[in-house]
Design a protein that fits this description.
SH3 type barrels; alpha+beta; BirA Bifunctional Protein, domain 2; 7-stranded mixed beta sheet; globular; 23% helix; 267 residues; 5-stranded antiparallel beta sheet; 2 domains
């Protein structure tokens, strides 16, 4: 075992955001899944559920999120924002900026964002975000939202398996001498709650856009059963991705899975 068990008080000593409740567990199936159960039982906004390990971590589109012990940190936040359901994506984009800010401030790293919800280092994924918005009875506003975040701190002992080997990385190539999980969680939470009141303001859009590394790139887009290639031209202020197909057609994407098409280098 590399580090002592993570405790709520470890995170609290680095945290500057008031009115958050920290609940740290050694192992959970999925922090989002368990937090939703707690939310349905009446848990308050600001409950942060942290796991040292997830046995059933989840990403977008029903994918699993590899969540081994010690080499990463995984947490979900119960939010009750006054937002229309259609603006649920603002929580995800704010989390992406918050992760980038935290890594820049604490470790002097240079993370970037792959639209819409992944944070990358050196063109490899180091953090993922899963936001689940639960509609109010009226159907057009959020009753609450679950913001789930997973961050790879260093490659696990068995390395990243299969397709993850080419796609995933950690913040550091080897385990740091110091356990950084508490510092990371606190920094991300502080930055998220600093941003949260300003999600409709132009500076927030600009903060997201300046870290978006796929502008000008050729990408493969998957939307349901449809797949197509396009070039990324811009990011609209509603965070829709402006792309151009080979035919010249311009489209605006509000959802979908994006992957970079590798450039073929001449010998």
């Amino acid at each position: 075992m590399l580090y002592p068990p993570l405790k709520a008080e470890d995170i609290a000593q680095h945290l500057h955001t008031p009115n958050l409740t920290l609940d740290v567990r050694p192992t959970l199936s999925s922090t989002n899944t368990v937090l939703r159960q707690l939310a349905e039982q009446g848990a308050p906004a600001g409950l942060v559920l942290v796991a040292e390990e997830q046995t059933g971590g989840r990403g977008r589109f029903g994918r699993s999120f590899y969540s081994p012990k010690e080499s990463g940190v995984y947490f979900s936040v119960l939010l009750k924002p006054d937002l229309p359901l259609k603006d649920n994506h603002l929580i995800t984009t704010a989390a992406a900026v918050a992760i980038c800010r935290a890594l820049e401030q604490v470790f002097n790293l240079a993370p970037q964002i792959k639209w819409v919800n992944d944070v990358y280092l050196h063109r490899q994924k180091t953090a993922g975000i899963l936001t689940e918005g639960i509609p109010a009875p009226s159907g057009d506003r959020l009753a609450y939202a679950l913001l789930g975040i997973g961050i790879n701190i260093f490659p696990p002992a068995d390395a990243f398996n299969g397709e993850l080997a080419a796609k995933a990385t950690g913040l550091f190539p080897t385990p740091p001498a110091e356990d950084l999980r508490a510092v990371i969680v606190a920094a991300v939470l502080d930055n998220y709650f600093q941003l949260a009141p300003h999600l409709q303001e132009p500076f927030f859009y600009q903060e997201y856009k300046k870290r978006l590394f796929i502008l000008g790139e050729d990408i493969l887009i998957k939307q349901g059963n449809e797949s197509f290639q396009a070039r990324v031209l811009d990011l609209r202020e509603d965070f829709a991705l402006k792309v151009q197909l080979a035919s010249g057609e311009i489209r605006y994407l509000n959802s979908g899975e994006v992957s970079i098409i590798p450039q073929i280098k001449n010998p």
